[in-house]
Hints:
Helix content: over 70%
Mean pLDDT: 81
Number of helices: 9
Largest sheet: none
Number of strands: 0
Strand content: under 5%
Low-confidence stretches: none
Amino acid sequence: NNLDNNSMIIAHVSRPTFYHYFTDKYNLSNCLYDKLLSETYNDFLADRDFRKYFFKSFLILKNNQAIFEHLFANPDDQNSLYSYCIKSNLERFKSFLNMKLISNEQLIQLHTYVVGSTYVGWQIVIGDFEMSLEEGVNYLINNIPDFIKTVLQID
């Protein structure tokens, strides 16, 4: 596959070395995403500031747009970075909420928000939606489901 070959060329490693560290190109892209956003996520865990978390995350993605634009290219692929982000963001929200008394309806709202905010966030980062990063962050903050705002005490 072209991405596997390009990844190995850029890293200057052989195919066996690449597969010693990564199971496939998806694993590489997921690790890259996690590595770049781990500090932002850790900051969020410390201060619970969604606005700062979204903005810093978008800024990191924007600053690495050339890489991520290619990695997000096939959102319908169940192994894509887009799918990984949805799963990862859903798990993060669940851990933020500690799943405290969350009903089935709230779980559906959470999932819908995560899928939508991941899509909208990416469109903002690559410039398909004509809004600034600040406007995008405000949009996502304003659309967090009420039960999440209540549980996490977001104004």
